[in-house]
Each structure stands twice: as structure tokens, then as C-alpha cells.
Amino acid sequence: MMRSLQLPEQILVAFRVADLSGKRDPCPFPPRGTVTRISFLRFYRHESYVLLVTKPHGRPTMVGEGKEELAPEGMEEGAPKPPVSFMDKISTYKKMVWGTYKSKPISYWVLLLLSSGAMLVAFPASSLLSRVYYSNGGKSKWIISWVAVVGWPLTALILIPTYFFCKTSPSPLTIKLTLSYIVLGFLSAADNLMYAYAYAYLPASTASLLASSSLVFSALFGYVLVKNKINASTINAIVIITAAMAIIGLDSSSDRYGDVTDSQYIIGFVWDIMGSALHGLIFALSELVFLKLLGRRSFHVVLEQQVMVSFFAFVFTTIGMIADNAFQGMSSEARSFDGGKVSYIMVLIWGAITFQLGVLGSTAVLFLASTVLAGVLNAVRVPITSIAAVILLKDPMSGFKILSLIITFWGFTSYIYGNYSLSKDSS
To answer: CA angle, 154 as apex, 319 and 285 as ends, to 5°?
Structure first.
């Protein structure tokens, strides 16, 4: 029943055999460089034989599933395997999920759940609150930009305890690192101002859909600046999302508030796309800072960058607020705001809190799980924002916008699949 087959490129890792009676006995290891061949007829019938081999510097592979498949005695090489039933696939998947769950402590899954919830709730809430500000009498673009960064101390309050729990020290601030934070802070302030123009003139559902084009620019700038790989799925996602943005532009006549002029709608549309492009550039530059200046990726290092970038963005935006006399205008806006002064203050406070919670949630997801999961959650929050805006703010929802929403989700799915393929190939 058994004979030896010389496989010079393989090294035996483990070999166990179970006889028909169900007893399991370890087989003695064959000579190095050889693999004992067994009857595959019995292997398929009982699925009891496990033979794990690997190439030098490679990953373990089960014989019969890898490229060096050994055909059973009396059967032709390359003969098809017996089909696996649907229930067997379900059972295998359940075991994989349970094994993944058991591999991490409960605290890990609780934190991941809270972080994912923050992304799916806080970011859409922040977008809706920006639109509520303008629809209820707010006028200033600088105030909404300032609200997006004024909550930076919340991130600092999360950062400080990590030094004690993780037993780490703050990253040294070199001249290059400080300059990079200043540049990123300035770009972030400009990015927030562009998005403020978008939410001033566009429905929240439309602004959210257009903002999803930042994925396109992140992929392009990542390829140019960081030398990230791009595959066919990523290119497909870029084309699909670009087409979705074009559909929204063609349907501008039915996707506009009555008090917004044609020129204002065009301004909001253009600033939203430009803000997405700048957001993609910021993302690529942030990754470049990690690679060139910090040289390491950890949760507290990312929080450090977020705190510093938000701080400098807050400084630049505050300068703009002073130059525009926006602080003096806040009192007059509060008096004329629909719902009164209290409603005005609550919109600004919760806008600042939700934006920072969304940033913290996305940061935690990236380092607890992967960029793939972060991409999935970003894809999900686009329709959440659009649907919530239609229900809560009575945003117009035409057939073209629904088509654009579906196409955008398709583009996100293609990008996620491409990102997953690249991660799998690199590992």
C-alpha cells in the first residue's frame, strides 16, 4: 500500500495516519527529502490521512491540494477531486470563524466592535450635522471647518494613557517630522474648508457620494508617491467610481435645493471633488511620513500624528476664523438659527465630537484589523449617510442618484477585492 517518492524540493513537516478502525498513530518520519506515498483511494474515502509538506522558505502545503499533487494509485494524474458538499463548506467556515474568534481576547473584539460602530455612526452623523448647520441658517464655511478640528484634545486624551499602558515614550520631534506635521495640518485645514463649501451647496447624500471619490485619489497618489501596487481590480474601481461621479453631475437639475443657484451647485460640486483629491494626497503623504520618518507603525504613533496634524490644522483654521471675523459672527448666527441658540451650540459641539470619534474609530480599525476592513466600513457608510439624509433631511433622491450609489458601492467592492488580493500575494 505504501511506497516512497523522492521529492528533492520538499521537506517533510508532519505526517499522521489513521487506520480504518479510527485509531490515530504517528508514523515514523521518512528520510529527509522523501515523502511516503499513501493510497489516495482510502484518503478520499476516509479523509484521515494528513500530510503536510513545504518547500524551502515556503509555507506548509497539504499534499493533494498543492501544485505537487500526487495522484492516487490506479488513477490518472490530475484526476478531479470528489466535490465538497455545501454543508462541509459551511462547517469549515464556522470552524475558521470560531478559530479566529478564539485567537484574540474578548477585549480585542469589544474594541474592534466599538471602533467599527464609531466609523459607521460618527462619520455619517458628522456629515448630517454639517448640512443641518447650513439648512438651519448657518452661513460661514470657516466655522464648519473649525468644528472639524476643534475637537483635537479628545484624541490627545486617548493618546496620553497609551504611554502608560503600552510602556512607550513619545516619538522625538525632529525638524523634518515637525515640518511634515505643519504641512499636513495646513493641507487638512484646506481640505476641511473645501468640504465646507460642498455641504453648504449640496445635499448631504450627494456630498457623501462625491466624497467617496477620495478612494480613487488615494490609490493614484499612493501609487505615485508611496509606490503602492495597483492591480486590475483597483483600476476597475477607479473607472467605476469616476463614472458614478459623472452620473451625479449629469443629474444636477433634480439634485439641488431650491435656494441654491446653478453657480453655487457647480462650486459645491467642484470643491467636493477637489477636497476628495486633497484627502487622497493627505492619506498618501501620511503613509510616506510613516515610511520615511517614523519607520514604524503602532497605535500610539498614529494617534501622535493625528493629534499633531489636527493641532496645526486647528491653528491654521483659527487664523482663518480671526481673519474672516467668524468668531464675532457666531453670536449673530446663534440668534437667527432655527431652533435657537441652544440648538446652534449643540450642532457645533456634536459636530466636533462625532468627527473626532470617526477619526479615532477609523484609526483603531486600521490597526486592530486591516485596511480591507476599513475599506469595507467606508463602503458601507456611504449608503448609510445617503439613506439617513433622505429620511432625516428630506434630501432629493432621483433614479440617477440611486444608480450612482449602486455603482459607487460596486466600485468599493472591486477596490476591496483588489486590496485583499494584493495583501494575500504579499503575505
So the answer is: 65
